Amino acid sequence: MTDPRTTVVVITHNRCGELLRTLGHLAELPERPPVIVTDNGSTDGTARAVARHHPRVRLLRPGRNLGAVGRNLAVREVRTPYVAFCDDDSWWSPGSLSGAADLLDRHPALGSVTARIVVEPDGTDDPIVRELRDSPVPGPSWLPGPALGSFLAAATVLRTDAFRTAGGFHPKLWLGGEEELLAADLAADGWWLTYADHLTIHHQASTARDPTLRRRHGIRNTLWFTWLRRPVGPALRRTLDLARTVPRDTTSLHAFAEAAAALPWVLRERRVLPHEVESRLRLLEPAQRASTARRYTG
């Protein structure tokens, strides 16, 4: 059941054991996808371990931690029509890559397919799954699943050319809700994003993570996206809503300070979305306010 349509891209930083587990699962997939790993400056022997245990994996070593831009670096090397992302603590289920490729083959205006996320070792749905299933975004009748306003990089297959044309992940955003800006730009380019409940990716959250830093970047990146792409009225409303609802602590204060310090850059790069894309984002605002899964990450 080899399937030459999709390449899997993984970014990693100092999670050698978890990465090897993920690569082991990917090596067992019946699709036998090419795999590209960007080692974001690991110092724990990751590169040596990958070369030893998974010599068929293409390993990129930029020499520093590029965050989500490590995915951009890998996509430059992709030669397949579709690219699937996963993190070093997640892996695709057998058949899901082929299933996503089938949907993309079947629907030429479909830009990305996001899979159901199963939390391991419990085997339960991630809380975000309900929000994906119940997305309020209206879509065309041909769309094979709920229309989405954004996607989760570690659970999504995209058209390689659409990703490249949209510019990939913005280098300023690093990690933490970095998908929101790219998703909006894909929609502005005319692509639809969907959720597919019959496709699965497994996620066993790494113990080597800094949730405080991720939350700070998530709040900052949400503010940057808001002022880079939203009209003034909705941008003000979203900013005030965040200010009212984020935890009142130093992490939130630093996030707002970082966002404000970049105002000259934001104003230079500001490009308001087309009306039809903006209208979809407005429909998402009530869900964003109520979300316990993504409240501070886009």
How is this fold's topology laid out?
Blueprint: E1 6-12, H1 16-27, E2 35-39, H2 46-53, E3 58-60, H3 69-75, E4 82-87, E5 90-92, H4 96-106, E6 110-119, E7 124-125, H5 128-133, E8 156-159, H6 160-166, H7 179-188, E9 192-203, H8 211-229, H9 232-245, H10 250-261, H11 263-269, H12 275-290
Parallel strand pairs: 1-2, 1-4, 2-3, 6-9
Antiparallel strand pairs: 4-8, 5-9, 6-7, 6-8
Helix pairs in contact: 1-2, 8-9, 8-10
The low-confidence parts are none
What would you call the shape? globular
The biggest sheet amounts to: 9 strands, mixed
Q: What would you call the structural class?
A: alpha/beta
Please, could you describe this protein's structure?
This protein is α/β, with parallel strands linked by helices and 298 residues long. The model has no long low-confidence stretch (mean pLDDT 94). Helix 2 (46-53) links the parallel strand 2 (35-39) and strand 3 (58-60). The chain has helices spanning 16-27, 46-53, 69-75, 96-106, 128-133, 160-166, 179-188, 211-229, 232-245, 250-261, 263-269, 275-290, and strands spanning 6-12, 35-39, 58-60, 82-87, 90-92, 110-119, 124-125, 156-159, 192-203. Strands 1, 2, 3, 4, 5, 6, 7, 8 and 9 form a 9-stranded mixed sheet that branches. This is Glycosyltransferase. Keywords: Glycosyltransferase, Transferase.
